[in-house]
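3.2 Worked example (two chains)
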Amino acid sequence: MTNVLPPLHQGHAPITLQELFREALYAFEEWDTELTEPIVTFEGKILPISAVFESMRDCTDIVPNVIVGAVTERLTKPWEGEGPLDQMTFSTAARVMGVLVRKRLFANGGAIAASASNSEPAELSGK
């Protein structure tokens, strides 16, 4: 599958990709207990939010403070940046969000497996 998202240019993301990252972050925030990963659209194409985060893994642009807050509030340890004034890059934010998506998918998949294994004995005992 070819990548439908615009490429980075020497580590910098076009504004459309930065805006899509923000949309993906908002979609993650609204993701409650659905079993499937949230999606966003870009130029008429439907993409899972993990594809957006993956496309920004090498982006060296600095994340706006509002996005930093949305990312760091999900961390289990306090954020300590290494840049001037503890600035976070999109690369760091994308990597964090990618891990969080995988953890949520794993947790949802684990819940499915647990409920399926719990329902099997009930089905068998009814026969």
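3.2.1 Second chain
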Amino acid sequence: MSKKFFIKIVTDPDVDPRKCVVGIACAAQAINDGHDVDVFFAADGVKMLHADYIRGINEQGNFPDGMIFNMLSVITEGASKIYCSTGSQAANGVTKENADDMLLEGYSNWMTWSGPPGVIELSAASDVQLVY
């Protein structure tokens, strides 16, 4: 039976990259299992949408080459909604004006800039909530 998942990524990957990757992996798995998945990136978890940051994690060799990019592709292609915190992105140097240079390719096709209203909307509509 399909469920409505809300997955929020808020952990700073500089502090606990494995926790962030587990959140990404769970979101991708829920999508692959046929669930309806919404994802919200907030606090320093927004770094997981920064292209250079993800390239850096990939190059460290702590995870199989390309694994994080593959899971993020599952999310960007299969999630119902993907939101990111406008304020959290700004605190990490990303604004709507410079996002084309900073975020994963094609972000404007799948990402909604938001804040607490988006968190409340997505969480209220969900059956299952996971926070990483």
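3.3 Remarks
Helices lie at 17-32, 51-60, 67-78, 86-91, 99-102, 107-110, 116-124.
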